[in-house]
Amino acid sequence: MIDDFNLELIVQPLQDWFAGHARVLPWREDPRPYYVWISEIMLQQTRVEAVKGYFERFITELPDVKALAECREDKLLKLWEGLGYYNRVRNLNAAAIQIMEAYDGRIPDDYQELLKLKGIGHYTAGAIASIAYGKPVPAVDGNVLRVISRVTCDDSDIMKQSVRNHMEEKLAEVMQAEHTTVIPGVFNQALMELGATVCVPNGMPHCMECPWQNLCEAKKRGCIESLPVKKKAKSRRIEEMTVLVIRDDEKVAIHKRSASGLLAGLYELPNLPGYMDTEAVLSYIRELGYAPIRITPLADAKHIFSHVEWRMKGYVVSIEEPGNELSAEDARYYKEQRKKKKLVFVDAEDAKERYAIPAAFAAYAGYMNIRLGKEAFDKKEETGA
Length: 385
Description:
By secondary structure, the protein is α+β, with helices and mostly antiparallel strands. The protein folds into two domains: 2-226, Hypothetical protein, domain 2 (Endonuclease III, domain 1, Orthogonal Bundle), CATH 1.10.340.30; 237-383, Nucleoside Triphosphate Pyrophosphohydrolase (Alpha-Beta Complex). It has 18 helices and seven strands. Strands 1, 2, 3, 4, 5, 6 and 7 form a seven-stranded mixed beta sheet that branches. The radius of gyration is 25 Å and the shape is elongated. Residues 379-385 have low confidence and may be disordered. Adenine glycosylase active on G-A mispairs. MutY also corrects error-prone DNA synthesis past GO lesions which are due to the oxidatively damaged form of guanine: 7,8-dihydro-8-oxoguanine (8-oxo-dGTP). Residues 42-197 form the HhH-GPD domain. InterPro entries: A/G_AdeGlyc_MutY, DNA_glycosylase, HhH-GPD_domain, HhH_base_excis_C, HhH_motif, MIG/MutY, MutY_C, NUDIX_hydrolase-like_dom_sf. Its EC number is 3.2.2.31.
């Protein structure tokens, strides 16, 4: 258990190991507060390799707090497209505004002050304070929870906030002890690195590469695979929906989601709750005042969020404007219907450059002649476009 283990023993072997095994990452090369902050927010729920390109693009477009604070939402969401969890980037913008107004544009170096910023919790505050400012405060993420649980053979449930708080307290004691040789930024990054590359979450850890192999209580007791203890998460809610790729020649319809809830404020392909058959889809298209020319069923798809799973049935529907047979009254009615549905017809270039469309619709993006999410970003990196 963590209370029975002398955590001071892990410090020097870990820091020595990190000196020879730290990955080269763009935010490590220049650990200024802004770079640490942006990278840590991007790295939440996202792999390091996926973040590198996004980070470079983001800081090129928005090189400092002032630029981030002044950035309009559409551009911000487009820069974040493919990283998911879009509230993270909205919180970045809100915190940047706070920093400009309350801290004269300087990211605070005090842990408690950092916690006052929108979207910054204990882990991110600890990362900024320790890595950018050298303050002896812990930064406990999933990697740290796992490696400390294993080296101390602690079977407490890491999903409990009380357990996380206690681990932070124990690490803070070590970091702030006068006689230790802790280098705060190095120590915290080394804990994360060990969890990401050696004491890994999936599959067997690489114990022979671990600087703690002679200290690890879980290894001595043969209980590595059972740690950390993590209470089973609630099952995801299943949502069935029908997704429509509505094409008018080379243009495709998109729709802006509401300002709150899942994927708030992003653009999406029009969709309807539940699974609809061909006739129901054609009826819906006619209700919008369009004349369907052709409808083609698409392969089913799914997208998994943290608490929700979308299961999607798709159709491509080619349309044209109805002829002159519409009465003035019908024309007014259809105009109102379209306005209510807020459909916008865009071409592929517009969609790529101006509209942030979540990767949840990636399975159907090919029918829009665009790529979404990481696939789009990877392609852009390849071509330099």
